[in-house]
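Batch queue: ligand-bound targets. Current item pairs a single chain with adenosine-5'-triphosphate. No template structures supplied; prediction is de novo from sequence plus SMILES. Inputs echoed for audit trail.
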Amino acid sequence: MDIAFCLSDVTIAYHGHPAVHHISGDFQAGSLTAIVGPNGAGKSTLLAALAGLRRPTHGKIERSADLSRPGAVAFLAQLSGINSDFPLRVLEVVAMGAWPRVGALGTVGQQEREAIDKALEQVGLKGFEDRLVDELSVGQLQRVLFARLIVQNAPVILLDEPFSALDAATTRDLLSVVSGWHREGRTVVAVLHDLDMVREHFPQTLLIARELVSWGETAQALSNAHLAQANHRSLAWQDTASWCEAPGVEHVHVHASGKEHH
Ligand SMILES: Nc1ncnc2c1ncn2[C@@H]1O[C@H](COP(=O)(O)OP(=O)(O)OP(=O)(O)O)[C@@H](O)[C@H]1O
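Prediction returned. Tokens below.
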């Protein structure tokens, strides 16, 4: 089977403190994977690195060759609202998904317009085209951002906590979009906290607690032993930060007192 991302000994540090530590493994093309772990486990950091927004401090992430074209890896950051000094309408935000094909200054043609209409219908927002996005509810905004992802039509889609703060109906609708992407053979990776949802809808799971705890079929990856191990590690880093022996990572040891020791 083809590999979408190959991680070799990936460490990502902020100011010398490793947030992701020595992760190795592959994301198979066409897989649907949940990234799970305690708060501060490095999930968002790892996802941002897959998106190419963060460079590993040590080790490397190789992408399959077909993912080098612009827009081939779609990324949805944690929901935080859209900040803009000028009013953006739903249609304009969804049309941004077509930018990798038409360019920032290009015109959206008939074919793209049809894709936008179809995407809005799929997320239940037909008729919302002219609404201002900063007047939408959190759930409606997330539907708009999913419509943008549908229009982008990327082979790889990365989602950071896509269902947090959403009601049951919105979650169900957007989960079915994710399942559809999986059926279409796209590679989907999502950071999630709801383990029941992961067990029901995500065949693969990567459990991280700064270091890799488990990665594989969800039932196995989320065994009680693995979850206990992840919790144990998170308690440990709340006490003292771990050392990183990777070259290029400054050795800083932070004690519970907050004092740094180099
Ligand atoms: N931009 C940054 N600068 C410095 N430290 C950061 C930055 N982003 C994250 N960190 C630190 O890296 C560690 C991992 O953070 P990250 O957000 O990746 O974890 P997470 O597993 O996604 O957490 P959560 O479940 O709470 O969202 C944390 O200790 C965090 O404080």
